[in-house]
């Protein structure tokens, strides 16, 4: 294990070399990237040396909202305050309980007027993870049977596909999975217009591929369309606002499916951006309250029911041994930056990143 960490650290350092290659000075007009730099200064001594010697290569475009010209407008009614948008979502889904639930999402995408989760730019927390936490997650290339290959990534419930394109720019071969046919149209349109906003992150690795597939996360039929085989498994799965989009009775199946789709390898990672962490459970959803302990209990016991208290909070049982097939949490931190909705009124990040692996 220690050897593997050392190896990963070396890889992360050489990867940082790619990220830190230009001589562009930092300015206060680069807030997101500056924050990434600050976190780099805090967490990575080797990166600190590189920063002092070379200064930071700032690739700002993916973190700024590009001009949007799309038939499904970004976010629809973006004027709504968060609480009102959440109340409206809850009302909408009261008509789509149980087996009809995923159709509730498809209906919102088909109307295209009310997509309050749709930020139109990739997650700063994912970017921070890819840039600053290579010591945990490695990078986009892997060796298999003595040959290098790109890691295969999955973004289930990818929405407009922004995080798919971000992972592609870091060199991953990425599948964006969506149940809603109109979300896929939005992905394809966005990809056509904005591929240039996601420049290659490391010339040595280059860009991977990005493909958008229609399918239900819980079913197998989309797997053969991935091009990775009908038993496809992924080296990286990224969950953002997918767990919290699930009704509570769906969570055991969510955890079981994640464990099934993640490659059983010490180099394969499920990355969960934990959100919303401070919403009261009684408020319902979507998004449903998703503090770290909710992910922890479900992924430690995939497919099993988890207990909730009278207020709707997940009950932790730290003494219960993990179940067979459980994933193990190998990293847990607060990202240097995240979307505004994941911060409190003072701008303090409330989200967490958790990295999970097969044991
Ligand atoms: C809250 S949205 C998040 C979208 C995206 N991750 C983002 O951050 O913009 C949840 C997405 O999951 C999709 N979805 C819901 N259930 C699904 C399922 N069973 N399989 C695939 N996608 C699903 C919905 O269509 C919706 O676009």
TrEMBL record:
<dbReference type="InterPro" id="IPR008854">
    <property type="entry name" value="TPMT"/>
</dbReference>
<dbReference type="InterPro" id="IPR029063">
    <property type="entry name" value="SAM-dependent_MTases_sf"/>
</dbReference>
<keyword id="KW-0949">S-adenosyl-L-methionine</keyword>
<dbReference type="GO" id="GO:0008757">
    <property type="term" value="F:S-adenosylmethionine-dependent methyltransferase activity"/>
</dbReference>
<protein>
    <recommendedName>
        <fullName>Thiol methyltransferase</fullName>
    </recommendedName>
</protein>
<keyword id="KW-0489">Methyltransferase</keyword>
<keyword id="KW-0597">Phosphoprotein</keyword>
<keyword id="KW-0808">Transferase</keyword>
<dbReference type="GO" id="GO:0032259">
    <property type="term" value="P:methylation"/>
</dbReference>
<dbReference type="Pfam" id="PF05724">
    <property type="entry name" value="TPMT"/>
</dbReference>
């Amino acid at each position: 294990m220690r050897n593997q960490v050392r190896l990963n650290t070396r890889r992360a350092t050489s990867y940082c070399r790619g990220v830190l290659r230009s001589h562009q000075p930092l300015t206060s007009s680069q807030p997101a990237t500056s924050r990434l730099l600050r976190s780099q200064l805090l967490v990575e001594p080797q990166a600190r040396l590189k920063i002092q010697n070379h200064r930071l290569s700032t690739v700002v475009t993916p973190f700024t909202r590009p001009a949007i010209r799309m038939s499904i407008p970004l976010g629809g009614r973006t004027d709504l305050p968060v609480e009102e948008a959440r109340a409206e979502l809850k009302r909408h889904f009261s008509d789509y309980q149980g087996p009809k639930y995923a159709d509730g999402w498809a209906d919102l995408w088909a109307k295209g007027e009310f997509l309050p989760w749709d930020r139109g730019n990739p997650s700063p927390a994912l970017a921070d993870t890819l840039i600053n936490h290579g010591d945990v997650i490695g990078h986009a290339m892997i060796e298999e049977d003595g040959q290098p290959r790109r890691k295969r990534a999955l973004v289930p419930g990818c929405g407009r596909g922004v995080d798919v394109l971000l992972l592609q720019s870091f060199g991953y071969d990425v599948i964006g999975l969506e149940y809603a046919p109109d979300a896929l149209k939005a992905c394809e349109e966005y990809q056509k217009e904005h591929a240039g906003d996601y420049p290659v992150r490391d010339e040595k690795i280059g860009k991977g591929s990005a493909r958008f597939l229609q399918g239900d996360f819980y079913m197998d039929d989309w797997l053969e369309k991935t091009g990775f085989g009908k038993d496809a498994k992924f080296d990286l799965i990224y969950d953002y606002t997918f767990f919290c989009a699930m009704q509570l009775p769906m969570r055991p199946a969510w955890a079981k499916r994640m464990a099934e789709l993640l490659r059983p390898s010490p180099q394969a990672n499920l990355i969960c951006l934990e959100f919303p962490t401070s919403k009261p459970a009684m408020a319902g959803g979507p998004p449903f309250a998703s503090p770290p302990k909710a992910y922890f209990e479900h992924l430690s016991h995939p497919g099993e029911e988890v207990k909730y208290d009278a207020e709707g909070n997940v009950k932790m049982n730290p003494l219960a041994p993990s179940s067979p097939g459980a994933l193990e949490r190998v990293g847990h931190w607060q990202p240097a930056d995240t979307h505004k909705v994941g911060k409190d009124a003072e701008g303090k990040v409330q989200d967490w990143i958790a990295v999970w692996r097969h044991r």
